[in-house]
Amino acid sequence: MPKVIYLDNNATTAVAPEVREAMAPFLDALYGNPSSIHTFGGQVARHVDDARAHLAELLGADPSEILFTSCGTESDNAAIRSALATQPDRHHIITSRVEHPAVLNLVRLLGTPGPGRTHYRVTELGVDAQGMMNLADLEKALDDDTALVSIMWANNETGVLFPVEEIGALCRRRGVLFHTDAVQAVGKLPIDLSKTPVDMLSLSGHKWHAPKGVGALYVRRGTRFSPFIVGGHQEHNRRGGTESVPLVVALGQAAELARKRLRDEPTRIRALRDRLERGILASTPGAILNGHPTERLPNTTNISFEFVEGEAILLMLDQHGICASSGSACTSGSLEPSHVMRAMGVPFTAAHGSIRFSLSIYNTEDEINTVLEVLPPIIRRLREISPFGRDQLAAAK
Amino acid sequence: MWDYTDKVKDHFLHPRNTGEIPQPDLDATVGNITCGDALRLMVRLDKAGRIADAKFQTFGCASAIASSDALIELIKGKTLAEAERITNDDIARYLGGLPEAKMHCSVMGMEALQKAIARYRKQPFELEEEGQIVCRCFGVTDRLIEKVVREHNLHTVEEVTHYTKAGGGCGGCHREIEALIAKVHGPPPAKAAKPPAREPAMTNLQRINRIQEVIENEIRPLLQADGGDVDLVDVDGKNVQVAFRGHCAWCPVSDVTLKGAVQAKLRELVDPDIVVEDVGERFTQA
Description:
With 397 residues, chain A is an alpha/beta fold. Chain A has helices spanning 17-23, 39-59, 72-85, 101-110, 135-141, 164-174, 234-237, 245-261, 265-283, 310-318, 339-343, 348-351, 365-385, 390-396, and strands at residues 5-6, 66-69, 92-96, 121-125, 146-150, 177-181, 200-204, 215-219, 287-289, 300-305, 322-323, 325-326, 354-358. Residues 282-286 of chain B have low confidence and may be disordered.
């Protein structure tokens, strides 16, 4: 097995050693329940508070605006269902066609008539060929019945950024709640919710070096909230269930690391990403960048290789220890290519061969150089096997 | 996530039989780039009619490439009569098995072989060219579905999807696949809707009411069962405007579903000249 070159950080990331260290005592001696009245349990509550403060600082929020959850999907479910529950007289949801399934499948479920549930009208805003949304479309879609706008901060497949600032301002003007799934943005971009008009924001720890199983939901002070998980009084009655103290502490430590690293790491990662991207586009004919060239996360590149299939590329990369992902049908868990590629109108000839590389603070220039060496022959090899594209690629030369 | 045998990996990473044969005796392509996999099979026969050489070109995932390579290993040296007895199970077995969800790759191999032989004999390729298209997303016929259901004793739509891809797109054909499964395994399918007698001359109002009725009673339940929906927007003579909701609205082939399902139903039950048009906004399901 060759050394692993991990370029799939939008899927998940390595747990930072500092994070592992910070959470360890809470898997050991400090096992108390933060809700307990005795000193042994109660001392743990302070660490939960610290974690909340660290996360609030990363987001430019107040600690009282943060509630811990089990993952990004829970945060999305909690936010969307709360927005609807607290506004029973509004029955319209606006989202985008390129949301993560955590939002899209929930909203589509809410938009499907069924016995015993309220039926909501759903507007899915499209994106252009570069994956960008048009604010005018949102403006047109908003009406007096709109309960919620839920639009992601950054797309997980392409890294394309959405105009969160403008969306928030527009929603605020129209008196409509705005939720953003920021699972891919937090820890990768500076975020300041004291200046950005977002009402609710979802995040997930394992995308930026905390372990899997912990996320958070930001709920702006003054936003009415209806709990998704009903139970005990934890999280100020907003999320029942004993806090997962080790994971919450881990998330706090990851937030602290991210805040310090956001000063210069994004620049370094961007330089590596650009080197990878430019190298591939220059060396490989029929390679097409998916997504806007600049309005993007610094760590993500999504490239289609025409006339070859993504799973085959990934499996050949895997032989070299290189981890990436694909929007091809064979890897999307269905028989059709990714909904993001389709929403952008990427032709099927290219959508099946789309590969996403997503970097982290732990990637090195050597690793990028290895990919640049290994990838072009893989594409050439698969094109030799493929019945398609010979004439087109020859004509393009 | 790859549950591939070493043999699949070997034939994917080191295929023995890729390439082209100039002026092959047999030549057929199945699948297409839109669907995500395609296989071109080329065969040269010797004077005795045995397969002297065969090559493939495949666009597809690892198991599609490995299945293509395995197919050729299996047919080399055989007569066409011997080769045509090779089934997709033989291909899968040769590879030490395929993941359930990838069985369609072995079926593609079998189809390519049968199509090439049919072409060579100037016979129609019945799995593709006869019968009715059931899955419009992937262009799968009832012939092929019935064949795999019978040969592999399949009982669920999901199993049929694994073997043929049918039903793996918009989901609009799940009812039809269930009916084919029932047809093969014995119990008759649920009672078919009785086509009502056609009224020879309808007023415009009667026509609109009748169209509305058919959409409500015959079409919407089918679409809703698969998470989709359709609304009647307007009727202008023979021109019927509808808007798709839910799953149907974002199905990449809703245009095909539309023509295939809604129009056919309306033509059958209301008026043979009806033309259906989708006027749902492209990105909006408001």
